[in-house]
Amino acid sequence: MLLVLFFFTLPFAGFGANALTYDYTANIECLANPHKPQYGGGIIINPELNHGLRGWSTFGNAKIEQRVLEDNKYIVAHSRNQPEDSISQKLYLQKDKLYTFSAWIQVSDGNFPVRAILKTTTGFKHVGTVFAKSKCWSMLKGGLTVNASGPAELYFESKNASVEIWVDSISLQPFTQKQWKSHQDQSIEKARKRKVRIHVVDEQGNPLPNASISIIQKKVSFPFGTAINKNILTNKAYQNWFSSRFTVTVFEDEMKWYTTEPSPGQEDYTAADALFQFAKKHSIPVRGHNVLWDDPSKVQGWVSSLSRNDLAVAVKKRINSVMSRYKGQVIAWDVVNENLHFSFFEHKLGSTASATFYNGAHRIDGTTTLFMNEYNTIEDSRDRSSTPDKYIEKLKQIQRFLRNNNLKQGIGLESHFSIAPDLAYIRSSIDTLASTGLPIWITELDIASALGQQAQARYLEQVLRELHAHPKINGIIMWSAWKPGGCYQMCLTDNSFNNLPTGNVVDKLLGEWRSSLKGTADGEGFFEASLSHGVYELKISHPNVTSSSLAQSQRFEVSSADTLEQRTLHLQVSA
């Protein structure tokens, strides 16, 4: 007898038609005409300005009016004297709801940041920012979570009070916690899983009903890991705890310039080399972190004291040294770290320093993705230095530099949360960044210890669920390298490698994200399951088939679908 197995990967069927789905789209192009408001405007009154100024009023001392250009109606705040002078609409926000916001913005002259703000009973909520231009419309996308019900007032702000602010297609859509969770579930089904249908038949093609099926996931495709350091090299318990859980890593300090060359000309890659050997032994990919760090407090003294010309030589040598040594051994390079908050090299070498570094990095390793790594792009909407629009503008500056148009770039989001995470702002910020089409990684995720151990665990679970569910996140690494004296901000275990509450969260989610199951085929020999992307081991047993070959496991892979068309995989097992 021959047992034949047919696997059919099926297109995602979707959720209930009445569910209010989330719109992940954003746009970073400046367009001649704005798009229609998302969600029909949500709770915004007169979102397309088709009814004059109904629902809108002045904020501060601006004057407002409706204008029409080529059948497009919009609202204008002019005669401004203060940054906050603009248009406004009074709203009522509800506690524990998550709001996604969007609007299309234009300024009368130049190119200036415009920020959307909600004045609430508990303070000012910074919703989102966009670099608005004249003569075309730019999309501002943002979000906020509301912790107290009450009246609120939406307005816009630009530090340049001499320009008019034009606004159109405004939307503010509330979601309940249950709806938000359903978005995550829907996205995971689409982005992280495939539906698999197994048909068990005999050699004549007759179904074998009630066959017992065991599916065990042997390898997870989605990269999830944590940082490590040299302490793991001599600690077997640390090694076992780490290698049994994670599929990607980064070295905490061992590749950084101040570690590998603390004195001029005295390079030492001993620790990094050993960590690479450890990672290779366990088949765990490594991110290269970092080539250069723009924070002057992280630059070793001998580098800080160099003249401009000597610094340029030293930087070129550094890039060549670390990247040539580990070329082919890393899956990514953080070429410049935190160059939105800091500018040590730009101050010393000129405004195109970062762009020059990426150019040099590309020449050495043109096949590996080159990341810009930054914090507070998704963590804190109040930080004006690293908003999504500023991140994108920096990427464009690097791309515009001579011979940088073919760079293989990536977006690195450190994700160091020092305040309670705002999931709506996180999601909308990633939406905006994703519109670049570049890969996005979470590179250094942690929750500040000052928030307390229980809050750390609670917030870590919220953030990990949100990030893993976002269809444009390509991988997640936590910043939890263990040291005897404690971790940077967030440990996952104690010094005996027993889980802390944060470690329990990680294990809980790993259990959810992996797809191992047992089941029974139906009366027609069919078995269906939704499986996470990865490699699986399959075992089949049936009371009418006693061949020893059935005891042998079969491996198959579930990967993402390029199209909605069905793809079929045929396997045969002799019996």
UniProtKB/TrEMBL annotation:
Keywords carried by this UniProt record: Carbohydrate metabolism, Glycosidase, Hydrolase, Polysaccharide degradation, Signal
Active site: E444
GO molecular function: endo-1,4-beta-xylanase activity
GO biological process: polysaccharide catabolic process
InterPro entries: Galactose-bd-like_sf, GH, GH10, GH10_AS, GH10_dom
Domain GH10: 210-509
Domain of life: Eukaryota
Endpoints of the signal sequence: 1-19
Similarity comment: family membership: Belongs to the glycosyl hydrolase 10 (cellulase F) family.
Protein name: GH10 domain-containing protein
